Amino acid sequence: MNLLQIEPTYDVEAIRADFPILQRRVKGYPLVYLDNAATSQKPQQVIETLVHYYENTNANVHRGLHTLAEEATEAYETARAKVARFIGAEPESLVFTRNTTEAINLVAYAWGLANLKAGDVIVLSEMEHHSNIVPWQLVARITGARLHYVPFTPEGELDMEAFEEALRQEPKLVAITHASNVLGTINPVEQITSKAHAVGAKVLIDGAQAVPHRPVNVAQIGCDFYAFSGHKMLAPTGIGALYARRELLEEMPPFMGGGEMIRRVTHEYSTWADIPIKFEAGTPNIADGIAFGTAVDYLQQVGMESILQHDQQLVAETLRLLEAEEDIVIYGPRDPASRCGLVSFNFKHVHPHDVAQILDAHGIAIRSGHHCCQLIMRRLDVTATARVSFYLYNTIEEVHAFWKALDDVRKVFGKYGGR
Ligand code: PMP
Fold it and tell me: Which end of the chain, C or N, has fewer beta carbons within 10 A?
């Protein structure tokens, strides 16, 4: 098989120099990190933001009148504005959360408990991550609402006919992923939103795999809620965000109660702070929030269109190489242009955990398992898949190193169909 070379859309080596962990060796080999859908690596600039904050500014936000408290508040709120602008939103509409999971739970409990009643329908898809299934199951159990799942086609696309059929039940909410972390599918979220709005449903989009990898504009999508995680887009763990339309945040009751989120507290009742602080009870994750702003600056400097193109080049080469292998099955759409930057696959005769372990012996980090998507596994009739997932610092040479290392799997387990 000939190996394609590509003209990168930016200077990948210069980017790699910003990521200290990429200098690491694993099992004697240079680290090839292809598990970006789980979490991304962090550039020096993000790490330095954390160190600088703790060395120079550390104080609690929104309360103190001293210099450090003012500086910390200013930095935290500046970061909020940057993250909001990054997805085309106003800062008041952006609530900092721990991650996508917490953002979806916030909507499920604060909006869901106030708006759902017995018999109401919530439309989900069978390609959702557990974090966009389990919160709805919990809230459905309390409210008596009913879950309806839209399947995906054998090609791994959302079944739009089945979606339209589901809308005939006039659901109260449609909660669907922007990009699948297993199939790589990019869902037509604008179309989904306008069709759902036409029957009066609110729309939540899980953007965990989309915001890190492509330009996203929530105003253009028109959705009501949009959830994403910082740690998959160069920011530290423990910080994520929920975008929600302003009117919804105004009318929703709080998710959690405590300090920060109140205006006035009496013996009997309390009133709430303005949005978005109404949804940020207790001391927030200040340092990681500020570093989220640095991460967004970094991505913007490279350019989201360029990152998207880079991901697609790596996916195209991966698909081309794997498609030529008779012992490998690929999951999800075949056109790199309709995918996010990952490819799930299986050897026909080797468990993906074994594949991941053999690649690790070459310093190559890939993921294997159900990827928190057991409904997808059930549809694919597998218990697990292997997955490679790329980001802005991965190179075509790393794709080739991964592909060559697959031969070691064949050395250990024998060839498919062989004896
Ligand atoms: N949704 C999707 C599509 C994801 O890929 C993930 C992370 N694997 C999540 C939600 C959950 O993200 P987090 O664990 O950061 O809350």
Answer: C
Q: Are residues 229 and 349 in the same domain?
A: no
Report the run of H or E that residue 296 belongs to, with start and end: helix 286-302
pLDDT for res 300: 98
231 and 352 housed in the same domain: no
Which residues carry out catalysis?
A: 372
Alpha-carbon gap, residue 314 to 394, rounded angstroms: 8
Which residue type occupies 61?
Answer: V
Residue 40 lies in a domain: no
For ligand 1, atom 12, name the residue with the nearest CA.
100
157-169: average pLDDT: 98
**For the whole model, what pTM was predicted?**
0.97
Distance 10 CA to ligand 1 centre (A): 28
- pLDDT bucket at 419, cuts 50 / 70 / 90: low
* Cα–Cα dist 12/18, whole Å: 10
Residue 394, judged by CB atoms within 10 A of its CB (0-12, 13-18, 19+), counts as buried
Contacts of 141 (CB under 8 A, 6+ apart): none
Q: What is the mean pLDDT of residues 85-93?
A: 98
Cα–Cα dist 322/387, whole Å: 12
Which of 270, 301, 332 delimits the end of a domain?
301
71 & 214 share domain: yes
Q: Is the pLDDT of residue 410 over 60?
A: yes
Q: Check residue 8 and give its pLDDT.
A: 84
CB-based pocket (< 6 A), ligand 1: 37, 99-101, 129, 131, 177, 181, 206, 208-209, 229, 372
Q: What is the CATH number of the domain that holds 380?
A: 3.90.1150.10
Do residues 335 and 373 share a domain?
yes
- In one-letter notation, the amino acid at residue 165 is E
Judge if 159 and 283 occupy the same domain. yes
**Mean predicted confidence (pLDDT) in 83-95:** 98
Atom of ligand 1 nearest to the CA of 229: 15
The whole domain housing 390 covers 12-30+303-413
Residue 398 identity (one-letter amino acid)? E
| Among protein residues, the one whose CA lies closest to atom 4 of ligand 1 | 208
